[in-house]
Amino acid sequence: MNRPARPLAIPALAIGGLCINLLLLARTWEASAIAGCGGGPCDELLASRWSSLLGIPVTAFGALAYVALLVSFLPRLVALRLPLLGMISGAACWFILVQALILRKYCPWCMAAHFIALLMLLLAITHHRRRCGTALVWAAAAFLGIGLCQVFGPRPATHRIDGESTPAAASCITDAGKRTVAFDGGRLSFDVTAMPRLGPANAEHVMVEYFDYQCAACRVMAGHIDALIARHHGRIAVLLMPVPLDARCNHALGKHTPHPGSCGIARTALAVWRTRPDAFAVFHKSLVAAPSEASARSLALSLMTEDALAAAFTGPWPGEVLRANIAAWRDLSKSTDKLPKLLIRDRRILHGLPANEADFLRVMARELGLPEND
């Protein structure tokens, strides 16, 4: 690219960057700021804690920065151009780092915007070699400033609780001695002794979690739930309802498969519960740490023979459970389809993932009427 063309390329790229940021800003509102899985990697990133800065979507800051950059091409404001290019590229470097090292997933639109920012900086540096230090200083300042604000600043609310403040889920003991719990006015009913469960069957509070083993937010939620059960020993039980985000068994997804292999993982987990309920809690924790079809099978075979595992797969039960879980997830997704979902009380649902474990424990103590330090 010849020297006269370089300055013209920067405003053209800036217009592209502005358009992408406006598109992502619109998708941020659609993502409903719920941290969880579902809707693809872009929606998951735009609903994560890293999608906002001081309570404002980072895409809004990005759009404003690109508008300011375009304005800097006015003759009287040319001195602002290199600092703005530095700030935009420094922000791009920070969010590339977040996607690569923290979230470990990528939004193609986000990466396109970051590529535009770095390309503009490269063009500016080659055109203004004597003043490139100015842009690099501002890039470093933006990188550090945004990083410090997001790591140590206030965290956005990344969960939502829907429903009425109703009593706990209705519970009853059947004539056969089994305990059932009902939610949503009785529309959803579960046999506590028959379904995969953490915590004792006679626990005072029984909740239901819809999740996917390969969902990153669900893995974090698993740790929160373990902490809750440990803190309120004997008083909490959670029924685990896998909802594979895998089109092989979840036909609600169409051809979209965010987590390929989740159907096999869920079926294996159900098989282990059916065959070795005494070992399920340890199996579940190990599978959450390494969620793949291969690890699920390996963990299962450490608990039973291959023939026993094959036998557990036969019959209609695993398929019926998955179909029921998927149907309930779809019905509970009127406001958001994000996983995890936690049925807390009769008509009370937590969507998404609280900011941290302490926040989750406080929310659960408030919702269930438990002391915060049991």
Architecture overview:
- With 374 residues, the chain is an alpha+beta fold.
- The protein folds into two domains: 5-152, de novo design (two linked rop proteins); 159-368, Glutaredoxin (3-Layer(aba) Sandwich).
- The chain is 52% helix and 13% strand.
- The protein is built from 13 helices and eleven strands.
- It has helices spanning 5-30, 41-46, 58-71, 81-103, 108-127, 132-152, 216-231, 262-275, 280-289, 293-301, 306-313, 317-331, 357-368; strands at 52-53, 56-57, 159-163, 170-173, 179-183, 188-191, 197-198, 205-211, 236-242, 341-345, 348-352.
- The strands form three sheets. A six-stranded mixed sheet has the order 3-11-10-8-9-7, with helices on both faces. A three-stranded antiparallel sheet has the order 4-5-6, with no helix packed on it.
- A hairpin with a 4-residue loop joins strand 5 and strand 6 (188-191).
- Helix 1 runs antiparallel to helix 5.
- The longest helix is centred in the first third of the chain and has 26 residues, at 5-30.
- The chain is elongated and about 85 Å long.
- The model has no long low-confidence stretch (mean pLDDT 87).
The gist of it:
By secondary structure, this protein is of the alpha+beta class. 52% of the residues lie in helices and 13% in strands.
